[in-house]
Specification:
Elements lengths: L1 H9 L1 H22 L20 H25 L7 H18 L11 H27 L4 H20 L1 H4 L8 H29 L1
Length: 208
């Protein structure tokens, strides 16, 4: 009976990892397909909605990533994480931010900020702040993982750099526009963080 319960507790974890992996395919395709059309240095990932099939593919990535993150949260809770604690709230905000940013797309470069563009921007700020902090709290209060902690700190620093890089967009001529580069580094670190958390949960379940 104990063995059956253990399997049921961890059944959601492989699904979350599969969701993380599958969410990568559309965004990688968009990067390859838009070479010469969008700059990975100056254009954000959200700008892929303006290329052929970009809106749908980007939505698949964002919503798959949100669903996988919720699945990972379920795995964390089944491993003993408090259901109503700050980590659950922060991961929920991350997933919600991804969803809201998908429903409210960004504005074209140089266009005035619309209601949708403003909501998209604030949703991005919430999600990019939430996940690094959630990872740091997991490593400090739930699963002692140096890897999770390092990716959390690196993602937090890069998230701050991404926010600061918007200055060159808001005030043209104040510096090089590199927010696309920082955002891509940030997403790479956030993916690594999510995979690191999944690995830490698996190790915890195996050892229990």
């Amino acid at each position: 009976m104990v063995e059956i319960l253990g399997k049921s507790r961890t059944a959601v974890l492989p699904l979350a990892v599969v969701g993380l992996v599958l969410s990568l395919f559309p965004i990688v395709y968009l990067h390859v397909a838009s070479v010469g059309e969008l700059s990975p240095i100056s254009h954000t990932i959200s700008d892929y909605i303006f290329v052929d099939n970009g809106s749908g593919l980007l939505a698949v990535t964002a919503l798959s990533l949100a669903a996988a993150s919720v699945g990972l949260l379920v795995a964390l809770v089944r491993s003993g994480l408090p259901r109503r604690g700050p980590v659950a709230v922060l991961i929920g905000l991350w997933a919600a931010g991804l969803t809201v940013a998908t429903v409210f797309p960004t504005d074209p470069s140089g266009a005035p900020t619309s209601f949708s563009g403003a909501v998209h921007r604030y949703a991005g700020a919430v999600m990019f702040a939430s996940l690094p902090l959630a990872g740091w709290l997991i490593s400090r209060t739930f699963i002692a993982s140096t890897t999770v902690r390092r990716f959390s700190v690196a993602a937090g620093v890069t998230s701050l750099a991404f926010m600061v890089s918007h200055v060159a967009v808001v005030y043209p001529g104040s510096g090089a526009v590199v927010l696309g580069l920082f955002e891509r580094i940030l997403f790479a670190l956030l993916y690594c963080l999510l995979f690191a958390v999944a690995s830490a949960v698996l190790r915890r379940e195996v050892s229990s």
